[in-house]
Amino acid sequence: RKESAPDILKNITQTASLDGPLGGSQAVGGAGAPVGAAALVQMMGGTPEQALHASSLALSNLLGLVCDPVGGLVEVPCQTRNAIGVAAAFSSAQLALSGIASLVPFDEMAKVMLSVGHALPASLRETARGGIAQAPSALSACARCGICA
User: Which label site among 6, 9, 109, 130 has the fewest CB atoms less than 10 Å from its CB?
Assistant: First the structure.
């Protein structure tokens, strides 16, 4: 089976979701890590099978990531979460290239991603009503800013 980074992205969009309100941050930023992991494996001369393993490893480390934008703005905390996704992609690619295989195939991981996204409470799916968005310092910063209020 030959899979490339675009194939991984297509699989996620067809099997799970890239939509924060449906799947939390695992659907938005979390979906980028498996695609990046597959691309990195390809760029480093790995096999399609290794790309799938890397994608599965990357996604497994970002399952359940909530979407809790402070003040409804995705800049906090999404910018740093995307950076963590990049680190997960690099680590997962290195693991797969060194021969470490994912126990769960990527196709199954995409289905698990959808299931986990549906299991997240609505308050943790891009509503700004849960998670970091409800921390006292985040609420205070939003009150001072006044843009979202």
Answer: 6
The tokens describing 96, both together, are 């797969």
Spell out the residues 6+ positions from residue 128 whose beta carbon is closer than 8 angstroms to its own: 68, 69, 70, 71, 72, 148
**How do the domains of the chain map onto residue ranges?**
5-145
Phi, psi of 67 (to 5 degrees): -110, 105
The alpha-carbon radius of gyration of the chain (Å, integer) is 16
Number of Cβ within 10 Å of residue 141's Cβ equals 14
pTM of the model: 0.89
Whole-number pLDDT of residue 78: 87
Spatial separation of the C-alpha atoms in residues 100 and 20, rounded to whole Å: 30
